[in-house]
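Researcher: Please generate the 3D structure of the following complex. Treat every line as part of one assembly.
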Amino acid sequence: MTVTATPSLGLARFVLLRNVTAFRRAWILLLSGLVEPVFYLFSIGVGLGALIRTVTTDSGAVVPYAEFVAPALLAVSAMNGAVADSVYNFYFKLKHAKVYDAMLATPVSPRDVAVGEVSWSLLRGALYSSMFLAVAWVAGLVHSWWSLLAVPAATLVGLAFGAVGMYAATFMRTWQHVDYVNLVVQPLFLFSATFFPLSTYPDALQWLVRATPLYHGVALERALVLGEVSWGLLWHAGYLVVLGVVGVLGTSRRIGALLLT
Amino acid sequence: MTDEVLLSARGLTKTFGDFVAVDGIDVEVRRGEAFGFLGPNGAGKSSTMRMVGCVSPVTSGELTILGLDPAVDGPRIRARLGVCPQKDILDEDLSVEENLWVYGRFFGLTRAEVRRRAEDLLEFAQLTERRGDRVEPLSGGMKRRLTIARSLMNDPEVLLLDEPTTGLDPQARHVLWDRLFRLKREGVTLIITTHYMDEAEQLCDRLVVMDHGRIVAEGSPRALIETHSTREVVELRFAVDEQERHLDALDGVGERVEVLPDRLLVYADDGDAALAELGGRGVHPLSSLVRRSTLEDVFLTLTGRTLVD
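Model: Done. Output below.
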């Protein structure tokens, strides 16, 4: 990623290694993040798709409804994985397990922690999206070779949501605050042109949706999976990367402010 | 012990808002020494330790560790320190040996290196048989030993121990002290905080007594007792409410009398003689005990309060 290098940044990979080691035994937990979007794919994409049949995308193509929804759910699965890890797990490790207090007693810096944890979110995003893509492919919903790029694109979604989620988690003081995350994630899930094209909304609302992060993930994934590739996609990717970098920088600053007092 | 100064603080101060946690202390620790900060809870011991551990910026004053400035060289200093915090913040998602491996990697050690060191340290901490277990079900003593083993993964020159035996049962404490003695013999500099006087007497070559963020006395445990207390102490217990009545009769016996809620302490170089004198005056407590002075008495003399309530 484009995170600027610092002298001790090399230690971030050992923060990542800690998570890999911790989840080696708990890998079944990792699967939980995949289940929800797969359920949605089959209930809404396939079930509702039997009623709706086709939909006209924002680029004008007419595609079966399930194929329209599948890439959006791919972005959702990456978001869910990243949020689950960066908000819930990160908050627990920060406030309760004191995992980072121990790390910061070593040469590891707050920046290493932030970069290491976001890399882990990214990795989980990639894992979820590969599995989801495989399911969608088996279900016959994926045709374009561009779809292979959907997995790296999903890591960008993981980066953006992982980093911002973590930054937000550093401000939370109780588990109640953590629950508020759903108030953000749910509307993003429902209104980011996930289940219908952006053009369904009036102009003013379209601009609002364009400003939110999951929309860019959905638009990017949909274009790749449906093979509607253009230079315009770089704008979506750029949005996610910028969000990710801002989140990482904010998180490392906050970790320092919270733990190095 | 050599003359090389590993830690030097001049006017070291730490404030949190209006609260002054550490109030301008001067400290010097030499290589190979076992140095203690003794004081009650809230005396500023942990704040001092966190500054020394380079995880808490110095508010004012000078602090040099291993010849380096923590504000500039934090990571380089931390690479050479072992830190054993007051609470065992072990990683409960990892097994016993994984805790050691993962922590070792944070110092940039190779995979082979951390496995080799973990092997030795599991032995040292008497945890070889529990190596594959989760951390959570371990006993308090085992967790503390694992924390110490973990803090030794980088083969530190200085080991910081914040209240190393608080909350442990007597047997676990003795096992731990034995491990710390071994480290000291191997030349590791120990910096210990404690509010247990027996621990300070057992472990420390030299210590400072802290109260309200200040150093109120400094020296070896023996020298502190000699300077600030008598050789022996007579503890007298009376029936409830009778303590006051006997105070006058104690006048002139021993060097000093300290009144505690549940007992009277008579400071005297010869405790038995003092007790006999009291018997002669017709003072007959419910129970009496003659014992040697401890650091607890030093603290009591210096601050008028007991260390552990």
